[in-house]
Design goal:
Elements lengths: L4 H5 L5 H9 L11 E6 L11 H13 L4 E6 L5 H4 L7 H20 L3 E6 L4 H12 L3 E5 L6 E3 L2 E3 L1 H12 L5 H10 L12 H12 L14 H20 L3 H4 L2 H14 L4 H13 L5 H10 L14 H6 L4 H9 L15 H5 L25 E4 L7 E5 L7 E9 L2 H9 L7 E5 L14 H9 L7 E4 L10 E7 L16 E5 L4 E4 L3 H10 L10 H9 L14
């Protein structure tokens, strides 16, 4: 149980190490115990993570009372919701890499025998699991939990409600005062954004992956259940250390397929595509967009959850969380039940005692009456995206869209025109040079997509980009266009007025311009310089892979 810490603290020559550790609370007996890191993503930067040190303390005490010696350490987090629509958002995806790097650095440097990581916001969650896969030491993930919804005029609201209210206000549908009231009421306290947005999507995906306990993904941030989850997870981790159960025993092609299946059934975030590709890469498992295509064709959307649906994550928690859905998917032979999990048991074993949903609930539809017969994450290919793009098609927007391009070289330019009523029906909004390298950082486009919805144009315009979308984005949107414009993808030479065809049924994304015209345009095209590139962004731009590979900095090493 002391495979790594013994090299740090055993023997006379390690006396200096022990001396340092005594200063942070180690006693003689502690040097004979396995050392367990508690990676806390606590920060007052965002409500998603503001409560996590409390959870870290609970986990730490439980490790100490179950045969281990815990050491709490911190890593960073950023807030997508706060930085959205600004240059700061370029650091969002970059933070995933920084967090994974920092956890790897601390665990490997200090010789911890295992670790528990607690994440609460979009990027620190996959980052924790990426670090687990890289290090391959016994480890477990704990989700910080979902926020409770706010309330305005007897209606439940959340952060996406505020973004969409900005568009409604610009369209004179609501007053300045009402926008102010929505702003004040949308975020009532700690926890991650409350729909099936990226944080809740990834929590469910990580549970399906086997790296967190059953229903760890479906608990309220400030609940007693979440505290109990921390205790149970710490105990499970100590068993993993004792039995030498490691992440790469759990993260396999089959378990990643389980995660993809659950994301599809839940109607989850497009960001799950990037993150599961990156987790697979970190674990040495080959995963590609073809896997999402294949699984999407046979997996129905069953969850009526925001942003496209009616219900919040807190309401899913009340009816039993995601575990009963996983049991249904297992019974329908859409999940691999023989996958090992952090409990030391298989997924099938973990779900044996899970009860079905109450027949009266309306959040998870019966398998025979799906919201959509196949997955909502559609991989599109064509001359605009030969390597793939990701469309989020709930079915409510229709299955195809053809329109004239309005081209913008940044998110800000597009948002300005949307709010100023310059976007007409039948337009395909093109936002380019926002990809992994060209951004740099592959910003999320929640501000423009929310403005489109707030303006009432959700069914009348489409938006395509080499950037990303927030889990809160909905409407006819296509992101992750690969290759991106900055490196010479066809998106780079699209002009205003060009016809763009998007077809979810044929899975095509095409620019309807002749090959001769395309060749002429590329002769005149020059690769642009990256603007506003700080040191962190410069490192990311130099190392990052394209979106179809997960936009990870470890691929090109």
């Amino acid at each position: 149980m002391r495979k790594y810490s013994s090299k740090i603290v055993d023997g006379k020559d390690r006396s200096p190490s022990r001396s340092m550790l005594r200063a942070v609370g180690f006693k003689d007996k502690d040097f004979k115990l396995p050392q367990v890191g508690i990676a806390s993503t606590w920060s007052m930067v965002t409500p998603c993570n503001m409560h996590i040190n409390t959870l870290a303390e609970i986990s730490s005490k439980t490790v100490d009372s179950n045969g281990g010696k815990s050491i709490i350490f911190n890593t960073i987090t950023i807030s997508d919701g706060i930085s959205m629509g600004t240059e700061g958002m370029k650091y969002s995806l970059v933070s995933r890499e920084v967090i994974a790097d920092s956890i790897e650095t601390v665990i490997a440097c200090e010789g911890f025998d295992g670790f528990l990581a607690i994440g609460g916001c979009d990027k620190n969650m996959p980052a924790c699991v990426m670090a687990m896969a890289r290090l391959n030491r016994p480890s477990i993930f704990v989700y910080g939990g979902t926020i409770l919804p706010g309330k305005h005029k007897s209606k439940k609201i959340d952060i996406v409600s505020v973004f969409e209210a900005v568009g409604q206000n610009a369209n004179k549908q609501i007053s300045d005062h009402e926008l102010y009231e929505i702003e004040k009421k949308a975020i009532p306290g700690p926890g991650s954004c409350g729909g099936m947005y990226t944080a809740n999507t990834m929590a469910c995906a990580i549970e399906a992956l086997g790296m967190s306990l059953t229903n760890s993904s479906a608990q309220i941030a400030i609940s007693k259940d979440k505290k109990l989850d921390c205790q149970a997870s710490a105990k499970a981790l100590m068993k993993c250390i004792k039995n030498d159960i490691k992440p790469r025993d759990i993260i396999t092609k089959k378990s990643i397929e389980n995660a993809i299946t659950v994301v599809m059934a839940l109607g989850g975030s497009t960001n799950a595509v990037l993150h599961l590709l990156a987790i697979g890469n970190s674990a040495g498992v080959k995963v590609s967009l073809r896997d999402f295509e294949r699984i999407g064709k046979k997996t129905p959307v069953l969850a009526d959850l925001k942003p496209s649906g009616r219900f919040s994550m807190s309401e899913l928690v009340k009816i039993g969380g995601v575990a009963p859905l996983m049991k249904t998917l297992l019974q329908k032979k859409l999940l691999h039940g023989n996958c090992l999990t952090v409990t030391g048991k298989t997924l099938s074993s973990n779900l044996k005692s899970i009860k079905a949903y109450n027949n009266k609930q309306k959040i998870i539809m019966p398998f025979e009456q799906p919201i959509k017969k196949n997955g909502h994450l559609i991989i599109l290919r064509g001359n605009l995206s030969p390597n793939g793009a990701v469309a989020k098609i709930s079915g409510k927007e229709g299955e195809s869209f053809t329109g004239k391009a309005m081209v913008y070289n940044s998110e800000e330019q597009a948002l300005k025109d949307i709010l100023n009523n310059k976007i007409k029906k039948g337009t395909v909004i093109v936002i380019r040079f926002e990809g992994p390298e060209g951004g740099p950082g592959m910003r999320e486009m929640l501000s423009p997509t929310s403005a489109v919805m707030g303006k009432g144009l959700g069914k009348d315009v489409a938006l395509i980009t080499d950037g990303r979308f927030s889990g809160g984005s909905h409407g006819f949107v296509v992101g992750h266009i690969s290759p991106e414009a900055h490196i010479g993808g066809l998106l780079a030479i699209v002009k205003n007025g060009d016809i763009i065809e998007i077809n979810a049924q044929t899975q095509k994304l095409n620019l309807k311009v002749s090959k001769n015209e395309i060749a002429k345009r590329f002769k005149k095209w020059k690769k642009p310089k990256i603007k506003n590139k700080g040191i962190v962004l410069a490192k990311f731009a130099k190392l990052v892979s394209q979106a179809d590979c997960g936009a990870s900095t470890s691929d090109n090493l």
